[in-house]
Write a structure and sequence with these properties.
Layout (H helix, E strand, L loop, with lengths): L1 H11 L14 E4 L2 E9 L4 E6 L4 E6 L1 H7 L2 E5 L6 E2 L4 E7 L3 E5 L4 E6 L2 H4 L3 H4 L8 E5 L11 H8 L2
Antiparallel strand pairs: 1-2, 2-3, 3-4, 4-10, 5-7, 6-9, 7-8, 9-10
Length: 160
């Protein structure tokens, strides 16, 4: 039944006959400019998605971290304008099971925080690396990214 429906819809809608364009997930085209987003991880379960076009990294905790914490009930974030140093504390997360400090994976200036987390700290559990991002940092030294782990190295660091 589904294949008949697909054939019928495809014949009546030329857009459905097109094959999806497959591009690398980390490459985006914005206003005709190609940018690359690099995602790196720390051993303390933070990650940074760095956009080379604007020099800003989006800081979050990993899915593994949120699952280890349990239900998050409070998030403490740095203030906009705060200068942060790599591997230094920038905030904290409290859950029903534990409290954990958040460390900056990179150095720079906080340019934005996720204010939604003040009212919805559980967003860290639902979408830790996307909607539950913590803050955005304008990197002062993008070469610090080279000292961090890629996804495969990070996953291997905590798997048994």
């Amino acid at each position: 039944m589904q294949s008949i429906l697909r054939r019928t819809l495809a014949s009546s809608n030329p857009l459905l006959r097109c094959q999806p364009i497959r591009t690398p997930r980390a490459v985006y085209k914005v206003s005709g400019i190609r940018t690359i987003v690099t995602k790196k991880y720390t051993a303390e379960h933070e990650c940074v998605a760095f956009d080379d076009a604007n020099g800003v990294g989006v800081i979050s905790i990993t899915d593994h971290a949120q699952s280890s914490l349990g239900d998050v009930v409070f998030v403490e974030l740095p203030q906009v304008g705060t200068e942060v140093a790599q591997h230094k504390q920038i905030g904290a997360v409290e859950s029903v099971k534990a409290a954990s400090d958040i460390y900056a994976p990179v150095s720079g200036t906080v340019v934005e925080i996720n204010e939604t987390l003040a009212d919805q700290p559980g967003l860290l559990n639902k979408s830790p690396e996307e909607k539950g991002w913590l803050c955005k940092i304008k990197l002062s030294d993008p070469s610090e990214l080279e000292k961090l782990m890629n996804e495969e190295e990070y996953n291997a660091s905590y798997e048994h």
